[in-house]
Design a protein that fits this description.
Shape: rod-shaped
Order of helices and strands: H
Number of strands: 0
Distance between the termini: 64 Å
Structural class: mainly alpha
Strand content: under 5%
């Protein structure tokens, strides 16, 4: 592997990790809000 290939691979890994983290955070926030919305009507009844 050339230094250029290593750099490209490292950059791709960083981007992939960043994307995975943002997706997880978005999913967590969405899950919490949908859980709250789902729970709310049950409490009212």
């Amino acid at each position: 592997m050339t230094p250029k290939e290593i750099l490209e691979w490292f950059f791709a890994m960083v981007l992939w990790i960043f994307a995975a983290v943002t997706m997880a955070q978005r999913k967590k926030v969405h899950g919490a809000s949908s859980y709250y919305l789902r729970k709310k009507p049950e409490k009212k009844v």
